[in-house]
Amino acid sequence: MERRGDVMELRWADAEERLQGTLHPALPREGQPAMLSLHVGAFEGAEFTGPLTLTVHLKDSPAQVTKTLTRDGVNWHTELTFDEPGLYELEIRYQNTHLKVLTGYVTVAAQPLPPELSWGLLVLASGAALVWGVRGAMRRMKAPASPAGTPEAGTATASTTTLESSASTEERDSTVPPPDAASNR
């Protein structure tokens, strides 16, 4: 089994026949239908027209679904609906000159969020982003308009001035030698 785009391709061959098929979509989801199409071709002799038997079951689960498929034109078609997510085993049986049993595995994904819930979460997140953006813009517009005499502005200026004056005092003290006790007299 090999994934090609949105289709899972099934291929098998021996000296007498080949089986080819597709499963669409390649990554089926629980509760959603998937279409399986199969074709058996003979390398020699008469064309195979007999029925195919398909068995589908969740890996390591005793419950299984078995379908007998009849040929529809050139291929055999069936619609599969998987009940729960997990790894499913597909078993295809048919008999032309010998009994052939082919097994493949398909991973079924869980159902995504319902579209209504997804859209609701998207609208809620967009609304929150809009509110925060408007709130931030309003704060920026109010900040320059506040007068310099407000307590907040005065506190910031005073603390900056204090830091600058103490730093300049430290610089002066560190570069100038201490006054001599005798020179003060």
Automatic annotation (TrEMBL):
Residues 143-168 have a biased composition (Low complexity). Residues 143-185 are annotated as: Disordered. The lineage of its organism: Bacteria, Pseudomonadati, Myxococcota, Myxococcia, Myxococcales. This is YtkA-like domain-containing protein. It comes from the Bacteria. Residues 176-185 have a biased composition (Pro residues).
